[in-house]
Amino acid sequence: MRVALAQTDCRLGEVETNLREADHMVKEAAAQDAQLVVFPELSLHGYALGSLADDRSIPGSDPRLAQLSEHGPDVLVGLHEDARLRRYNSAAYLSQGALVHTHRKLYLPNYLAWEERKHASPGQGLRAFETRWARMATLICNDAWQPVLPWLAAQDGAEILLVPTNSAAGLVPGSVDTQGYWRDLLLFIARMQQCFVVFVNRVGNEVGASFWGSSRILDPWGNVVAEAPEWEQSLTVVDIDIDAVRRRRREMPLLQESRLGLVAREVSRLIEEGADS
């Protein structure tokens, strides 16, 4: 399978312009025989939604989204989704002119410099989904920092985890080494869930935030098989072997010992004892 990492900048709130740029990038990937193009989190809208004077969200059924996948490759694109009553930080997976799956970000950071809960509601479910190439699941940025979510996706059969991200450097000075955290986190996810991890981070500057890029793909052993440059827009195309997931999971069957009943009982106990449900 040939995957393209579309490490893009975007213009805050300028959806039409960002759609044109995404369409151009998909065409470029198609010319290199890519079968999937993955864009960063909120790639059609930008991250600092609170700086916009009005609501620019669009529905997942917007035909302009489906058109992105009419050039050949499947496409994962990030958007501020208009779901009538609520808005979501979403990633839409599109194939052959149709919407296949939408993931709505589950864990919205709302501390320090982040105010995502002001502009989006949390999603309510995580599902792996079938594509033409492999079974996949999407985790948007902070979703991947919740240890249970990559495990649940793998238990649902995901062979590829798509991780669109808006990660900035130095947004809160001295708080977190985001680049180091992501490096270690992605390694851990790939090794423990024994799957490909496709991490696509944006670049550019937006309302005081500098996005560092360095998008990458890790294989089921945790090896980095491709990495985009830091700080600059790029398209990185790489071939991956989906059968490697099945080989790795056979030779070291970590995921078979799931004991879902045990997990369900202990989670139910914690909820009954007053934990957050």
Automatic annotation (TrEMBL):
CN hydrolase domain spans which residues?
1-242
Q: What would be an example GO MF term here? A: N-carbamoylputrescine amidase activity
**Pfam family, any one:** CN_hydrolase
Q: Does the keyword Hydrolase apply?
A: yes
Q: Identify the keywords attached in UniProt to this record, alphabetized.
A: Hydrolase
Single GO BP term: putrescine biosynthetic process from arginine
Task: Specify the superkingdom.
Answer: Bacteria
This one is known as: Amidohydrolase
What is the organism field in this record? Saccharopolyspora karakumensis
